[in-house]
Amino acid sequence: MPKKLRAVFSLALLASAATAVAADDAIDSYVLAELARQRIPGAAVLIVKGGTVVKERGYGLANVEHNVPVKAETIFQTGSVGKQFTATAVMLLVEDGRIALDDSLREYFPEAPADWQPITIRRLLTHTSGVRGEGDEDLDLQRNYTDDELAKNFFDHGLAFAPGSRWSYSNAGFVLLGALVKRVSGQFYGDVLAERVFAPLGMKTARVISDTDVVMNRAAGYELKDGVLKNQDWVSRTLNATADGSLYLALPDYAAWDRGLREGRILRPESWKQVYTPVTLASGKTYPYGFGWGVDTLNGQTVYSHGGSWQGFRSSIARYLGSDVTVVVLANLAQASTEAMGDHIAGLFDARLRQPELTAIPGGDASTEKRLRVLLALAAAGTLTTAEAIPVSAFKGMEKYYQEMVAPLGAPSTFTLMDRRTRGDDAVTTWDVVFAQKTARVQLHLDPDGKLVSLDVEGR
Fold this sequence. Notes:
The structure is a single chain. By secondary structure, the protein is of the alpha+beta class. Helices cover 32% and strands 23% of the residues. It has a 7-stranded antiparallel beta sheet with strand order 3-2-1-14-13-12-11, with helices on both faces. The chain has a 4-stranded antiparallel beta sheet with strand order 15-16-17-18, with helices on one face. A hairpin with a 4-residue loop joins strand 2 and strand 3. The chain starts with a helix and ends with a strand.
């Protein structure tokens, strides 16, 4: 190479290195600032670019009482990020010829009510089954249940809507999938994952939650109660091992998982294609969710993502296919905004991944604003119940969760509509709301009947 070209090439490399260092510093500064702002004890961040780990770092404390710092090997609970692993276990049984996606659940649970016949394995995987959450208000999180007892609990509470007609997040659907894996294979779903997913991919510390086992580098989970940091509430052994998201993973496990996904390992190509295909509703519209993965687009590229929340932990994973970038954010606080943090970190790492800037929509939306005001008032009072929300996702304890999220903001005054879109048959609006204490961005997700699907508040 001529000297002049070598010099230009060297300058380009130096510039690229300087940009990478600047982005790395910006990410560190941002994460540390968010830990302070959100009062998160500890967090861990993974960034993979083109199959290479470019950032794998812990921040803050894994255990506040013992002053133990978070490191790359610190183990966090996955929450619902674990659903993508359950979906993989189910697809392994499909490939084995043991089950089919369009089989009725009643083929494997003949004791299920007759009106559950239209519920297929596919509908459980895509949250379109209509199965209510955790039996609404009567599931005791401190009690041990057998799979059969949990299934009966769900059967007794009936369906929230006709199977296939709507999308609504259902933890119970994935609990049933875990029980189905055991009925069909004879193995606990966690053992199927250990043998057929974790071990082959080199996910060395991935496992199902256990309070009694000695688990090295395990983080403690926390929540803010009335503004005071508290340890997570205790959950029974069996309810901490269900297939809706009861796993332990550290950043190296996520890196190994990402590598396996990028290489198309574990499942056949046609199976992965089904995993990432958005579900089609009875109306003919599609909802941006596959099997344990959200499927969306950002600035023209496909994004596979999921978040999780459980027992004092929050998690998020996003894979940006066009840029070949994966971002994982883990935190040990129930109220942490890990998905929003992941979005921001992605944008700092790669400008193409920045979330679009929103501008106010002229005229607003008076009817939706009125509905949002009602829901925020109920949330602040701690009285937001299944009378106002789709009774599908686990709602036990959610009144308190929403209250702790909204009440400290004070009374809302000004509402500015920033975004409006549809997901399947649902309406999703984003608002900038001026509260007495601060301005926050609020995303409201309503079903066609105006019932609450989700309410998210950022910037609190």
